[in-house]
Design a protein that fits this description.
It is a single chain. Helices cover 42% and strands 12% of the residues. With 244 residues, it is of the alpha/beta class. The chain has 2 domains: 145 residues, 3-Layer(aba) Sandwich (Rossmann fold); 65 residues. A 6-stranded parallel sheet has the order 5-4-1-6-7-8, sandwiched between helices. It has a two-stranded antiparallel sheet with strand order 2-3. Strand 7, helix 8 and strand 8 form a beta-alpha-beta unit.
């Protein structure tokens, strides 16, 4: 249940479970998001959205949502809208998989996850990536065994940033929302956590991001912002020993 409006969620200690975003948080890849957005707009226009109605500077989630609203408003049949969503997923999946060969673990990821596992935390991944990309990326980077719980874009039901996606994963993990944490590198992660009444820690990109990135995270509800995974480990009171 969400906290009453205007009141902070009643987070409790000890923390029992940690859910991580995948891309940008645990692994680094080179997704061609610009191409994905172009393809989504092309598919939307093929389905009936008028050219120029969609903003290519928005996120893929926002473009798809706008396209579905446009199609519904035009009275486009439900079957056509379903096919559009299916075509979007297939197209994004294919482009996403092209990034796998260059996908690497973020520095300190294995050490942090090992330390958290030894401390007894239950760990999960919540990602908008496909199941195939998520599992293959985690396996390729040596991180898959740390995560018995995964929820991806391929799972039935809502996807991040819908808060129910996070709640469903936490129920599977057996962790109450007030004893859980979501860690991510995007405003959608913060939005998802806040709406689910889950505490959120932001993590900056390896290059530090924009000068006001940490302030933006805090403005979006982050309880803490880490520069990197070793610093996140210090926030969680675990020692992250660098490999070698």
């Amino acid at each position: 249940m969400d906290a009453p409006e205007g009141q902070p969620p009643p987070f409790l200690e000890p923390l029992l479970g940690i859910v991580f975003d995948l891309d940008g948080t645990l692994v680094l890849s080179d997704h061609d998001f610009r191409r994905m957005r172009r393809e989504v707009i092309r598919l939307a226009e093929t389905a009936g959205v008028a050219p120029g109605r969609l903003n290519p500077d928005q996120t893929i989630v926002e473009i798809v949502s706008s396209a579905l609203t446009e199609l519904e408003g035009q009275g486009v049949p439900e079957g056509t809208r379903f096919r559009f969503e299916a075509d979007v997923n297939r197209t994004i999946d294919a482009i996403e998989l092209e990034a796998l060969p260059k996908t690497t673990a973020r520095e300190g990821a294995a050490e942090l996850l090992g330390a958290l596992t030894r401390r007894g935390f239950r760990l999960g991944v919540l990602t908008r990536s496909s199941s195939e990309f998520c599992r293959t990326a985690l396996q390729k980077t040596g991180l898959l065994d740390f995560f018995p719980y995964l929820r991806t874009r391929s799972a039935p039901g809502p996807a991040k940033p819908d808060p129910e996606a996070l709640r469903l994963l936490l129920r599977e993990m057996g962790i109450p929302v007030d004893r859980s944490l979501l860690v991510g590198d995007h405003r959608f992660d913060a939005e998802c956590a806040v709406r689910a009444s889950v505490r959120f820690y932001g993590i900056l990109p390896p290059d530090g991001g924009e000068p006001d990135a940490a302030e933006r995270f805090r403005a979006n509800g982050a309880s803490a912002v880490a520069r990197d995974l070793p610093e996140l480990g210090r926030f969680l009171d675990v020692a992250v020993v660098p490999a070698g």
